[in-house]
Design goal:
single chain; mainly beta
Length: about 700
């Protein structure tokens, strides 16, 4: 594609300040998004090319033939003949391992296909499939400004890509319907195909977002099938017209139904008006059947990001699996995205968890850009492992586990290792050119973990941003979805803006089970971005808000076991320290009344539990201790100084095999005006 992926990368000073952002496009209304995947555990996409080739061109759809060669087609370039002529389309044969790929041109230009549409269109390859050693290539008409694709056809080669034939009477598809076509990749020669069909995916309108809105942007992905020996016969094609649970097929293209709809928009508002904005995410890509994992993987892209989807069947249900956002500002050798994404089956590992993604960045010779050639980077996937969490309470940083994968909304840096390198002097930031509302940083795991704490260190801010405007919150990934953690409390009090640079904070919350965690907050500064120096997640033996300073109601943190009136005092006039304390009061004989909190503990450990109690004179007993499944340890104490705060404590012997207890602090409401005030509860490991 002879176009620039982005406009000027210099941010326009006239729109730097948020106060002048009235000239920026307003975000569109929220649209339906693809469902998140609950199959994937972790996904890693390299930030840049791992293997390049001495070639010129883009797109490079490919297929792996029975002869063990990889065949691929390029657009707008010279292919593997760098001294040869420029062609809008060509086909090449690639040999050797990924690290030593070599190629040779086979057919070019009119030898591969024709342009069906007059008035400013050229040919572009969009998909390729090998049926044994027979090659099929989808070629579309694409406008010179790349904003609409009105026609497409399928060419066939029986001699290893040297000569091609096609129906010369007209295109197989026209009127912008199903005109960006690629095929499901079923391995060498199609050996992994589940039946006798070739499956073809298609977009309407254009191969990606129509930047000038010449046609509607593609937000629906369609599917067709055709007997493997009749791929070039349009009359043999059938289109998916059912549901994932009840697949159905129709010969009428008007009956087709999408197998995936994703109306997400990314980079809705930009500081630099020369940069592409408000981008759709379904684009010309590739579907790999990952046989070892028995999963279909769709690789898509938008201007500044790659988008991966997965499904158990060719028709779905397709779910959003992973995104890698390279930012609008990064077109450097160590960090860049690219378009025309494919996942060739030839480079799939034996276990199906490692593969190579091909993508390109415009443009080519004589001033070649970063990867305007056949270009590969590594992708690693780990499906979610079944089973409950199995990480007992400890001080271990779950972000440093070997199977943890750091994730972010976007990042200017190629890697996120600064988040867990133990040094506050290194940092990452998400300055990406977008007028965004929030940034986020976190970790994902390929199995469930228990966690109840996130610690983070703010990065050093820049002049134009690099901080959270207000206290960030913690979200966790449950069944593929990111949800807010209930009962989260941050200490110390969060200081927004540059005053918080290098400041350390802890967010504590009741133990949750999840497959990911992230810190989310509003992005600050004139360029709306955040920065972090360190981020850790852990599952600790801890009590949350023992001073009740951040509690306003009983719920996810503090609970209550009893029938008495209860609540929290404020203002500091009734507390032992600070501003707040808990209270319980009754005039009836109701027996034991407890303020409670569920706590993760180390099995077999000894714990000191203490708190400051103040009672009215009628109270004859206070209680402190814990319960767990199958047992309890509760100490009763006679108050010695009514109407004065007194510290009470006990040692809890946690049985082996018990990892969760409920701490209990209360009193006996045995008649009269029974009042308890409670403050400064602590839970610490007991000494020997």
């Amino acid at each position: 594609m002879r176009c620039r992926l982005a406009g000027s990368l210099t941010l326009a000073l006239a729109v730097i300040m948020i106060g002048t952002a009235t000239a920026l496009a307003e975000p569109r209304a929220t649209r339906p998004e693809a469902e998140p995947s609950d199959w994937i555990g972790t996904a890693k996409i390299e930030a840049a090319e791992r293997y390049g080739t001495a070639s010129d061109g883009d797109l490079w759809p490919s297929c792996w033939a029975d002869d063990d060669n990889l065949y691929s087609a390029w657009g707008d370039g010279r292919g593997f003949d760098l001294d040869g002529e420029f062609y809008d389309v060509g086909v090449a044969k690639l040999t050797g391992p990924a690290s030593e790929l070599a190629g040779s041109n086979l057919a070019v230009g009119d030898e591969v296909g024709r342009v069906w549409t007059s008035g400013g269109y050229s040919r572009k390859p969009t998909g390729m499939v090998c049926v044994g050693n027979t090659l099929y290539l989808a070629v579309q008409d694409l406008s010179h400004n790349f904003d609409d694709a009105p026609a497409a056809t399928i060419a066939k080669s029986d001699d290893g890509g040297k000569t091609w034939t096609w129906d010369t009477s007209g295109p197989m598809f026209d009127d912008h319907v199903f005109t960006t076509i690629w095929f499901a990749d079923f391995g060498k020669g199609g050996a992994w195909a589940p039946d006798g069909y070739v499956y073809a995916y298609g977009l309407d309108g254009n191969w990606r977002d129509s930047y000038r809105d010449t046609v509607p942007d593609p937000t629906d992905l369609f599917l067709a099938r055709v007997p493997a020996e009749q791929v070039a016969d349009r009359s043999a094609w059938e289109f998916f017209s059912g549901t994932p649970a009840a697949p159905a097929w129709s010969a009428a293209i008007g009956d087709r139904k999408p197998v995936l709809t994703d109306e997400r928009r990314v980079y809705q508002r930009m500081f630099d008006q020369g940069l592409r904005n408000d981008l759709s995410v379904l684009s010309q890509g590739h579907v790999l059947y990952d046989k070892p994992l028995d999963r279909y993987l769709y690789s898509s892209w938008s201007e500044y990001a790659h988008h991966l989807y997965e499904a158990p069947q060719p028709w779905g249900p397709w779910r959003r699996m992973a995104d890698r956002d390279y930012t609008a500002l990064n077109l450097q050798p160590e960090t860049f995205g690219g378009y025309g994404t494919t996942l060739p089956s030839k480079f799939l590992s034996a276990d199906g968890r490692s593969m190579l993604l091909q993508s390109n960045v415009c443009c080519g010779l004589p001033n070649a850009s970063i990867s305007y050639h056949y270009s590969l980077r590594r992708v690693d996937l780990v499906p979610l492992r079944d089973g409950p969490a199995d990480n007992p309470a400890a001080d271990d940083d779950l972000g440093r586990r070997d199977d943890a994968v750091p994730v972010s909304k976007s990042a200017r840096q190629p890697e996120l290792e600064a988040l867990r390198d133990g040094s506050a002097s290194s940092q990452v930031d998400d300055r990406d050119g977008e007028v965004k509302d929030q940034g986020w940083w976190g970790y994902t795991w390929p199995e469930q973990v228990d966690l109840n704490r996130v610690d983070f260190t703010i990065g050093k801010a820049g002049r134009d941003g690099g901080w959270f405007v207000s206290a960030p919150k913690v979200q966790v990934r449950v069944d593929g979805r990111w949800v807010d953690v209930r009962g989260q409390l941050i200490t110390p009090a969060f200081v927004p803006g540059r005053a918080g640079a290098r400041a350390e904070y802890a967010v504590k919350f009741p133990t949750v089970t999840a497959t990911g965690v992230r810190l989310v907050g509003p992005a600050g500064g004139d360029h709306r971005y955040t920065s972090l120096a360190e981020l850790s997640a852990s599952h600790r033996q801890q009590l949350v808000d023992g001073g009740f300073e951040q509690s306003s109601d009983y719920g996810p943190v503090w609970g209550f076991d009893g029938q008495a009136g209860h609540g929290f005092d404020g203002g500091g006039n009734l507390s032992h320290s600070g501003e707040k304390n808990a209270w319980v009061r009754t005039s009836e004989t109701l027996g034991a009344q407890y303020v409670t909190q569920q706590v993760s503990v180390v099995p077999g450990s000894r714990i000191d539990l203490s708190g400051w109690f103040r009672t009215s004179s009628v109270v004859k007993r206070v209680m402190i201790g814990a319960r767990w499944d199958g047992g309890e340890s509760i100490k009763e104490i006679a108050p010695t100084a009514p109407d004065e705060y007194t510290k009470q404590s006990t040692v809890i012997e946690v049985p082996a095999g018990v990892d969760t207890i409920t701490v209990l602090l209360g009193y006996g409401a045995d008649g009269g005006d029974a009042i308890l005030q409670l403050d400064d509860v602590e839970l610490t490991p007991a000494g020997d």
